[in-house]
Amino acid sequence: MYSEEDINSAVAAGALTPDAAAAFRAHMTRVRAMPRSDEEGFRLVNSFNDIFVAIAIVIMLVAAGAIGQALAGAFAPEPVFPVDAQVNNAAMDAWARQNAYRSAMSRLFSGLLVAATAWPLAEVFTRRRRMALPSILLLLAFVGGVFAAFSGVGDVLNRSANETTGALMISGAGLVAAGAAWLHWRRFMVPITVAAGVGALALTVLSLIAGVLKAAGVEDTGTMILWLVFLAGLAIFAFAMRWDMSDRARTTRRSDVAFWLHLLAAPMIAHPIFYSLGIMDGGDEVGVGAALVVVAIYVLFGLVALVIDRRALLVSALAYVLAALGFLFDRFGAVELNVALTALVIGSALLMLSAFWTSLRSRLVMGLPAAWQERVPPAMPVMRAAPALPA
Fold it and tell me: What sign results for the dihedral spanned by CA atoms 360, 366, 370, 374?
């Protein structure tokens, strides 16, 4: 199996002419009866060797984290829990502070060792071997390790456990993690890196706002932060569309970058909307109206997914629409079969959507204004599948 990146690399090296590469793409489009852009392909595993290396990498990173925890124990031994007559408020507070300090030191040392292990491994398996799944794991380990280490530093400095200071420390750790993602991108250019960096920046901004709200004495910040997450999701969605518009045919790494950005933005958009409707609370508080609104929003997400040719919105909202349909079936008497009927309806609908994706998308996009059509992957008419190759 060869990815678009491999084909582009072969063209750049002179092994394939641009015309030959274009002819190959056109041939595969005819064979699959679907435009390549509609497949929303991204490379994860080329062979079982990718899985083998990924397992070994996970073992190495777990070992690095465990060594970090052991080193932290030398600087911050595990505190003894006060028992019997020694138990009092002062003793409990002291134990809690010591335990928090040990936890912070563990994150500091473990994060540093995990990040320090991930980078040289990426030099081999990302830069030289160009293995997809190991590259993703190593990127997440590096950025996550940096974030864990600096959040540990923040907790060590914030011994008073002040919530406002803690939020500011988290924002600082997020900013450093975003910088780490930028360095990783400059060196290795793994597509998921941009999403990791943008996610870290979003965490930085949200933590800063949370800290300001706490300092201002605002008590109920949860709802406000939830809708700020929604706005951040919309901003990331717009950023993803910018990457998508720069590669409408989806033949370069830019399309892979957009894929991961859409995967990050989708739950940030979907969760606040459905959470505000109370759909995950269950019980009689949901109401038939709210459940129907959830289904209607999911249909709207489906239309958006068809236009932009991305399925992330549909996947991120799946849990909510399952809960809504389950509630509706339960409310209208199908108590025993409510789970089965919900799974049957959603599964059938998604399979039908997948089977007719190209034709539905073609009709939908062709009805859009010309200016909009020029900003999304081109819609192609349904093509007749190529005849089967002889045995």
Answer: positive
